[in-house]
Amino acid sequence: IRAATLAGYGARPCLRGLWLARCDAVLHLAEALTGRTADAPPALRTRLRRAWEPILLERVTDLGDGDETV
Question: Model's pTM, two decimal places?
Answer without folding.
Answer: 0.63
